Amino acid sequence: MQSTPNIEQFIPDSLTKLAYQGFQESKKAFGFLHKQVSDRLTHAVIPEQKSKSQPLSPEVLKKLQTKLKKLEEKDWQDAQRGVYPSSLLFDNPWSDFFRYYPEVWLDLLNIWERVQQKDYQKFDAAIDKSGYPDYYLQNFHYQTDGYLSDMSANLYDLQVEILFNGAADAMRRRILAPLKQGLETFTHLAPQQLKVLDVACGTGRTLRMIRGALPKVSLFGTDLSPAYLRKANQLLSEIPAELPQLLQANAEELPYLDNYFHGLSSVFLFHELPATARQQVINEAFRVLQPGGIFVICDSMQAIDSPDFQTMMNNFPAIFHEPYYRNYTTDNLEERLSAAGFTNIQVENHFVSKYWTAYKPAV
Ligand SMILES: C[S@@+](CC[C@H](N)C(=O)[O-])C[C@H]1O[C@@H](n2cnc3c(N)ncnc32)[C@H](O)[C@@H]1O
Question: What confidence tens digit (pLDDT) does each residue in 94-115 have?
Fold first, then answer.
């Protein structure tokens, strides 16, 4: 059978790279502008908010820009060497952007109300809060209804892209090379037999990317939020490939048999967990992984990684509601991974994020 020619084959790399750089630049400019305007409005309405954060020095801002450029170059290079198709570099939830961007502004009014009342555990009366751990019932990032409403799920990806100046997906994609490499342990199996779980999959952005990099593996996703899982189901069903199996579950008690998965990922979860839950999630990851299996974590950079960015790390929980972030920034996840039994633990940083790769020892 003749394979269908891919449009990417006809576009010179130099042009694709220019398009990617332009795309990233426009997301950066958009995020920057959005934050400038929303911060000014917030400071006009709640002047105390301004004193909660410290300005970043020009040197730090320059270092941030350099790190962002390096991240984008790495993203481009990984696509070039075939870790994932270059089309993934341009994957963006456009229809949601146009549909929900006005809501992001409207929601600012609710955020101001919660900030003024200092009430960060506020949920709509119709939301059933039973069965969730207490630490989860928070308006993380001041989100209306925390993670427990459809509107929160509709706005989430947009808010994260704005927060990271358009770099959120490029940071998520950094899990793909180590994950793919780790799965090479199982080359004796057909790709369809490989099982990969994304823990706390949220709206499914990471699963979408894993599907791009590993089109045939069986994908699974769990999250505590039914609303985010509904959104993930909607976004993942846009891809003409097998739908990942999504399940509502606490990452501390994964509803799977021991030694079930070949690979596990978790993106931007650990900073939203108290320390004991972090350890429990790591223990569960170890339990459900097969011997030889790989676990890749992506989350925020930590204090130890770069003293230059300490002001930024102090600002984040002060201007967003992130009750466990400060503790996270000084937590030693390598020690936690070792305590659970993981070996061959490797750590790397990209832009403002950090990655841990760890293996369950083969028997
Ligand atoms: C910051 S979001 C990250 C979502 C997604 N991984 C991403 O890359 O955007 C944190 C996610 O973790 C989920 N979450 C938080 N605590 C959890 C827990 N104990 N068990 C399962 N999911 C949890 C939330 O519902 C939310 O979807």
Answer: 889 999 999 999 999 999 998 8
